[in-house]
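Morning run. Coffee first, then this:
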Amino acid sequence: MRLSPDDWIIWEYGFIKLNGTILMTWVLMIVLVVGSKLITRKLTTGILVTRWQCMLEIVVIGINKQIRDVGIERPEKYISFLGT
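And here it is:
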């Protein structure tokens, strides 16, 4: 017996099928977009920052450091792709 999200057909019209894999991918993309909008809506450049902004900056700095440790000179170019 094989259990796979590809076997879970949610909607079908002719040869077009919407299965569990496609649905979960789109749900995850929506969660990532909404989450990033919520996290980045109140960012500031001043001295006083919120703890959420501080945590976000620590994560971004950590990802940049990991990319640089691998050997890539300018990690800012790749953080949007590798950070997810």
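Strands lie at 9-13, 16-19. Good start to the day.
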